[in-house]
Amino acid sequence: MKAVRIVKPEQLEIIDVEKPVLTDDNNVIVKMTAAGICGSDVGIYHGTNAAATYPRIIGHEMVGIIAEVGNNVTNVKIGDRVIVNQVISCGHCYPCSKNRGNVCDNLAVRGVHTDGGYQEYINVPATDCYILPDSLSDADAIMIEPTTIAIQSCSRAGLEKDDMLLLYGAGALGSSILRIARQMCDNIIIADIMDDKLEEAKKNGAKYTINVLKEDLVEKVKEYTGGRGATVSIDAACVKDSLMLLLNATGNAGRIVTMGFSTSSTEVNQFLITSKELEIRGSRLQNKMFGKAIEMINDGKLDLNGSVSHTFPLTKAQEAFDFIDTRDPSIRKIVLTFDF
Ligand code: MN
Ligand code: ZN
User: Fold this and answer.
1) Taking the domains of the chain in order of start, what are their residue ranges?
2) What's the 100 CA to ligand 2 centre distance in angstroms?
3) Are the C-beta atoms of residues 211 and 195 closer than 8 Å to each other?
4) Cα–Cα 20 to 30 A to 130, which of 219, 246, 251, 339?
């Protein structure tokens, strides 16, 4: 069967690998039908993802059909359309004991530390499979994964109705977070460098927008919050200076959620953290949020239809990654398909 492997940074190859064999009674074989390309996949390809190990069959946004089931499997059956959880945790360590398996001491992420979804079949525990709503195509269902990441960040933020949220970044990550955040909180300020993204965010429920190239972020946030700053800030821009900016833009007793994966050091100011008693919280992957995301779709609170802008067959993965590098403004979500 065909697979896409990143041999080392900047080297992508289409390879033939053995189809997986079902050996564990608790596992299933999923025949992949769609695999999303995420910013972190692009990072693995370009060698800018600190978590990645090579060579790797990448892809952590995985949708498919159950093709084989082990003897003990009860939650899914052959033919079910599913999305596959990317997080593999040990269940024994300190974070796992605190129900924080997404930061397990022995964490493995499919497509990052172990082979992922850019292959025709994958062997996974049945409990990592979640049945898709009928209302979604396989390609659009890929967006459930970024939705879980967004739910995780809002959960880490402890977002409440009366919060004044500053969402920094209106790109793919920021717009996913906005979609979740607006259901929990009415006052959302979104900041970005692109006017068209900001306009779209406004249509999608942001109350105020700030173009940080034209306006002073901290000044504007203060203006929109009666001078006190945001009560909670989420960094969905993940650029070098974003943490320091958010330390300044967040008011006393506020929370700041970081989501970046850059390892380059950046200057922060301890006085801001101490004097305001700020809480800085990381948000990584997602902690059992697939069920929640699917429930929101089934309840009609979330519509992911039409999220995908482009599809490429798996065997044209190189073209897809090259196209992403053009930063074409038409790009929303790109999904690899398996109908080649
Ligand atoms: Mn993703
Ligand atoms: Zn663990």
Assistant:
1) 2-143+304-337, 148-282
2) 8
3) yes
4) 339
Where do we find the tokens 């519509």? 303
Q: Class of 2-143+304-337 per CATH?
A: alpha beta
| Residue 11 main-chain phi, psi, to 5 deg | -125, 105
Cα of 97 from ligand 2 centre, angstroms: 7
148-282 maps to CATH 3.40.50.720: yes
Whether 236 and 177 have beta carbons less than 8 Å apart is answered as: yes
Task: Give residues with Cβ within 8 angstroms of 25, minimum separation 6.
Answer: 70, 71, 72, 73
pLDDT in tens, the chain (340 residues): 999 999 999 999 999 999 999 999 999 999 999 999 999 999 999 998 888 999 999 999 999 999 999 999 999 999 999 999 999 999 999 999 999 999 999 999 999 999 999 999 999 999 999 999 999 999 999 999 999 999 999 999 999 999 999 999 999 899 999 999 999 999 999 999 999 999 999 999 999 999 999 999 999 999 999 999 999 999 999 999 999 999 999 999 999 999 998 888 889 999 999 999 999 999 999 999 999 999 999 999 999 999 999 999 999 999 999 999 999 989 999 999 999 8
Ligand nearest to the CA of 38: 1
